[in-house]
């Protein structure tokens, strides 16, 4: 007998303090003609490991850029910790350091060292003179070294980033985000290009950091299998619409839109979609 | 390809060339008739007067110092202006007026700046240094802001999303990402400014050109030759040194950047 847990997300109160990210009826476009996201509703609890899965071009990266305020939605409302994300807004700008964002390209600075890249995560905590003269306080340097160890890069702190392997670069990007002391981590397909073993190493690392720091992680994946393996919740995006959202409890998968489904059935459904 | 359209374009260019040559009195026959004069100059130049070598070297040293000060100060003033002129860092209301100002500065060749400063501060190397500073600001700022605009937008976006200030973004992303270009521009500018400073003496703004123009005025080609030879050798040496520096530091870091994009 499968233990079934119904998730009544539509009826959950929007004022619950558990909610860290709320999107209601969000649509957006790059050219004010073709909507790349259409009527997205999302509600993410604090501490969740949330996955967004979909084919390329379905709008996953756009969704993350809306969450970190790099883009502003055309319609609907978005709240991150009850603040509307907009990087030109003073109130949101003050809380941007609590959102760690790792783009698909990682966004590292290639010709400086690993430790210098990681310390960039501490910049919002520095005074003007400290940042002008690159005077990072001792406790920040210690923190960077601690995180360096956490991501298993000890001993490589003085390597230039362009000399690192793909897996190592991802560790640096994660470390920079963790250096921000974030409450939310947004990661865009950061394991898609890695081999199976390395991808799992990176995902384990994030799962570990997430537990330690009580992070809410929102990760975009191409691979449904990987999403089901690590996430508590998986949203499937297709052509800008959320077609499915599933809760994952260990091996058991609970769907609140279409009724109970097994992992195999979900995989089948997703594979059918990605073939089209 | 010789399409009819290309033929018309080539025809127009040739026509313009003929008209322009007529207007400026460019006459190949005069050029050929003038060649014997060149032979006389060369012959007299061969009577190099070695006892002027120390003076020439000293004058060249002064020239290099002028170029050095002018390049460094001009470059340092240009850098913040370039940050304001870069389209990827500022709104239109900031970059447009700064670009207009820089374009205006750029319209003056260094020799005109030199004349202006000789009138302002009098004859001598100081006027030359000021001229080099102004010329460097106009010229190098364009190279700088173009380099800044070609920076990869991914690290800029990623670091902006941390919530850093604009100055932190410049200090920690823009400068490191464009450092190899900036260093290469600095070397190029110094190299170029040594050549320019060598002729500023023509209008009395100091440097080795002052000696050259005076000896030529009095037909003392042998003495002028010493000074010109020193300029030639110096320029070759500086060229060689900057190629070495470029190979050692700049090519290496750019190569590193290419490796990561694969
Ligand atoms: N900067 C942009 N300008 C215009 N269209 C864009 C831009 N970025 C993405 N798009 C379009 O938006 C759609 C969704 O893109 P994206 O969010 O990157 O999808 P995904 O991350 O799922 O691959 C695609 O059709 C893409 O072509
Ligand atoms: Mg994407």
Work out the number of β strands of chain A.
Answer: 10
> Total number of helical segments of chain B?
10
Outline of chain B: globular
What Rg of chain B do the Cα atoms give? 23 Å
Question: Helical stretch count of chain A?
Answer: 9
Radius of gyration from the alpha-carbon trace of chain A, in angstroms: 19 Å
Strand order of the largest sheet of chain A: 5-6-7-3-8-9-10
Q: List unreliable stretches of 5+ residues of chain A.
A: 1-16
Architecture blueprint of SSEs:
The complex is a heterodimer of chains A (276) and B (262).
Chain A: E1 19-29, E2 35-45, E3 49-54, H1 60-67, E4 75-80, H2 90-95, E5 99-102, H3 114-119, H4 128-132, H5 138-150, H6 166-179, E6 184-188, H7 196-213, E7 216-221, H8 224-230, E8 233-238, E9 241-249, E10 252-255, H9 263-275
Parallel strand pairs in A: 3-7, 3-8, 5-6, 6-7
Antiparallel strand pairs in A: 1-2, 1-4, 8-9, 9-10
Helix pairs in contact in A: 5-6, 6-7
Chain B: H1 4-23, H2 28-45, H3 53-85, H4 92-106, H5 110-121, H6 125-149, H7 153-160, H8 166-200, H9 209-217, H10 221-261
Bound molecules: adenosine-5'-diphosphate and magnesium ion.
Adenosine-5'-diphosphate (ADP) binds at residues 30, 36, 54, 56-62 of chain A.
Summarize the structure.
The complex is a heterodimer of chains A (276) and B (262). Chain A has 276 residues and is of the alpha/beta class. Chain A has nine helices and ten strands.
Describe this protein with a few key phrases.
heterodimer, A: 276 residues, alpha/beta, 3-stranded antiparallel sheet, 9 helices, disordered N terminus, B: 262 residues, globular, binds magnesium ion
Structure overview:
The complex is a heterodimer of chains A (276) and B (262). Chain A has 276 residues and is of the alpha/beta class. Chain A is 33% helix and 25% strand. In chain A, helix 5 crosses helix 6 and helix 6 runs parallel beside helix 7. The relative contact order of chain A is 0.17. The N terminus of chain A is likely disordered. With 262 residues, chain B is mainly alpha-helical. Helices cover 82% and strands 0% of the residues of chain B. Chain B has ten helices and no strands. In chain B, helix 8 runs antiparallel to helix 10. In chain B, 35% of the residues are buried. The C terminus of chain B is likely disordered. The chains are: A alpha/beta (276), B mainly alpha (262). Chains A and B meet through helix 2, strand 5 and helix 4 of A and helix 7, helix 8 and helix 10 of B. The site of magnesium ion has 5 residues of chain A, from helix 1. The site of adenosine-5'-diphosphate has 10 residues of chain A, from helix 1.
């Amino acid at each position: 007998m499968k233990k079934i847990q119904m998730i009544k997300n539509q009826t959950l109160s929007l004022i619950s303090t558990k909610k860290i990210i709320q999107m209601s009826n969000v649509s957006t476009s790059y050219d004010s003609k073709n909507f790349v996201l259409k009527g997205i509703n999302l509600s993410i609890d604090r501490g969740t490991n949330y996955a967004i899965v979909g084919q390329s071009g379905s709008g996953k990266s756009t969704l993350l850029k809306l969450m970190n305020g790099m883009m502003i939605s055309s319609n609907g409302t978005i709240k991150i910790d009850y603040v509307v994300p907009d990087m030109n807004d003073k109130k949101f700008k003050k809380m941007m350091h609590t959102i760690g964002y790792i783009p698909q390209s990682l966004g590292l600075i290639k010709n400086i060292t690993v430790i210098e890249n990681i310390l960039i995560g501490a910049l919002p905590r520095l005074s003007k003179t400290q940042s002008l003269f690159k005077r990072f306080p001792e406790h920040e340097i210690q923190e960077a070294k601690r995180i360096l160890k956490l991501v298993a890069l000890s001993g490589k702190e003085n390597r230039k980033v362009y000399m690192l392997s793909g897996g190592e670069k991802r560790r640096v990007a994660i470390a920079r985000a963790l250096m921000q002391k974030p409450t939310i981590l947004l990661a865009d397909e950061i394991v898609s290009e890695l081999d199976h073993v390395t991808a799992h190493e990176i995902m384990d690392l994030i799962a570990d950091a997430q537990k330690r720091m009580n992070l809410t992680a929102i990760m975009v994946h191409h691979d449904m299998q990987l999403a089901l393996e690590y996430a508590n919740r998986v949203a499937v995006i297709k052509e800008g619409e959320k077609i499915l959202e599933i809760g994952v409890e260990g091996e058991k998968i609970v769907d609140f839109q279409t009724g109970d489904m097994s992992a195999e059935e979900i995989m089948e459904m997703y594979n059918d979609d990605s073939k089209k | 390809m010789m399409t009819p359209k290309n033929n018309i374009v080539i025809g127009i260019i040739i026509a313009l060339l003929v008209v322009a040559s007529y207007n400026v009195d460019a006459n190949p026959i005069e050029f050929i008739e003038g060649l014997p004069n060149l032979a006389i100059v060369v012959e007299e130049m061969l009577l190099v007067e070695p006892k002027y070598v120390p003076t020439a070297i000293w004058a060249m040293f002064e020239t290099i110092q002028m170029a050095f000060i002018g390049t460094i100060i001009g470059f340092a003033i240009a850098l913040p202006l370039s940050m304001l002129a870069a389209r990827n860092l500022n709104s239109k209301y900031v970059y447009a007026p700064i670009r207009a100002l820089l374009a205006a500065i750029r319209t003056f060749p260094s020799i005109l700046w030199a004349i202006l400063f000789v009138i302002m501060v009098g004859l001598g190397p100081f006027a030359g240094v000021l001229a080099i500073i102004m010329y460097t600001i106009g010229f190098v700022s364009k190279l700088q802001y173009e380099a800044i605009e070609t920076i990869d937008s991914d690290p800029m976006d990623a670091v902006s999303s941390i919530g850093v200030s604009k100055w932190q973004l410049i200090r920690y992303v823009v400068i490191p990402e464009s450092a190899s270009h900036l260093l290469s521009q600095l070397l190029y500018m110094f190299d170029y400014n040594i050549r320019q400073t060598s002729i500023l003496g023509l209008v009395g703004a100091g440097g080795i050109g002052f000696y050259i123009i005076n000896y030529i005025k009095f037909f003392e080609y042998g003495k002028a030759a010493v000074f010109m030879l020193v300029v030639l050798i110096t320029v070759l040496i500086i060229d060689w040194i900057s190629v070495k520096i470029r190979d050692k530091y700049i090519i290496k870091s750019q190569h590193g950047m290419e490796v990561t994009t694969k």
